[in-house]
Amino acid sequence: MMFKLGSTILKDIRILTRDRLGLIFMFVMPIVLAVVITAVQNSTFEMLNTNTVPMLICNRDTGEAGKQLETAITKAGMFDLKQVMPDVTDKEISEKMHAKDAVIAIIIPADFTLKIKQKSNETAKKALRNFGMQTDSIINDTSSVQPITLLYHPVLQESFRHSIQGALRSALLMVQNREVLKSLYFSLNETNLPDSLEQELMSSQVAINEVPVSRDGSRNIPNASQHNVPAWTVFAMFFIVISLGGSVVREKLNGSFVRLKTLPTNYLVALISKQITYLLVTFIQAAVVFSIGIWLFPVMGLPKLNLPADITGVVIVTLICGWCAVSYAIMIGVFAKTQEQANGIGAVSIVLMAAVGGLLVPSFAMPDSFTMVMKMSPLHWCLEAYYGLFLEGGKLKDVILNIIPLLGITFVIQLITLYGLKRKNLI
């Protein structure tokens, strides 16, 4: 039995080495995906954390509020301000944006300081009136006035626009709060707010301490490599369907199944051989991609992949994910009638399962209606198990609840494969 299995494994290895297209999909594709996606995501993170977002600012206001808003936007820490002369028209600013001089622009109107002062005075009067310290009627309410105009290039995604709007609203709120403080202080003391007190009041913000949730108590902030390398490793594992599924179909078409029935062996031996051979391939895939993340990424200027403390857990999760990927590829090969069907159905189904499984869109961003569909994707459980180790700092016992559903899906796939083999009289 062991001799037959060993000989079959050797045969599968030889067939695998001749499949150049399959080897490209299995090894070159995950490396390219991991490098490209990590580089893009890392550059996005850096753009959000440094002054690299180009912004045109046209300040048509001659008062202090306009200057304060410029200062507040600069201190926001995510914009590269480019001044535009006040006499430039809105159309000319739009033309500059179409020329890709900047992706966003802010126009501060000439009456910005006046509007801010009016709004601040009314806010101060409302506060004093509620305290019973002033009975004057409140004049025109201009709280609904939008004093600034934000222009953005159509290529700017909605999520990124929301981040920019949040930073701008914070800067605008700081300017408004400053004017409200001045108005309140003057109403109470009939003198201007001292500069020293103004700086003290405006700078007394509560600090935000960002702490990533981890199971081992570490406070290492996960980087783009921690997110992308495990995700695209899983994707590459399942893409062995191109090679393995096609191999099963070829053996069906060239009569290998029929010849095996005439020999003192069983096709189950061939299936076990394929599973062992390609399980080894998936493990090598993970080892290669992880090694690139550890040693090559820092050389390329990308964040280094930090392996979890529980290496045994990584090995076991990798083997289980690889087994599921191999089982799925064999199932596709058993039911496909041609190699083209195996390649097409296999590739499309993997992309769909990756999309609903959280590889292309984060699982927390999925609508509630996709929850059940997401849990049916084996790639979802593979990714959650890896994330539990790489991002949350967990150990094998912490990701058991992700491994159990993955094993259940694998067993179901194996049963479906056996059913297909018996139905087609192949075993």
Structural description of this entry:
The protein is mainly alpha-helical and 427 residues long. The protein has two domains: 2-43 and 219-423, no CATH class; 52-202, abc type-2 transporter like fold (3-Layer(aba) Sandwich). Helix content is 66%, strand content 5%. The protein has 16 helices and four strands. Helix 12 runs antiparallel to helix 15. The protein is elongated, with a radius of gyration of 31 Å.
Topology:
Blueprint: H1 2-18, H2 20-49, E1 53-59, H3 64-75, E2 79-84, H4 90-98, E3 104-108, H5 112-130, E4 149-152, H6 158-189, H7 195-202, H8 224-238, H9 241-253, H10 256-261, H11 267-299, H12 311-335, H13 339-357, H14 371-375, H15 378-390, H16 400-423
Parallel strand pairs: 1-2, 1-3
Antiparallel strand pairs: 3-4
Helix pairs in contact: 1-11, 2-8, 2-11, 3-6, 5-6, 8-11, 8-15, 9-12, 9-13, 11-12, 12-13, 12-15, 12-16, 13-15, 15-16
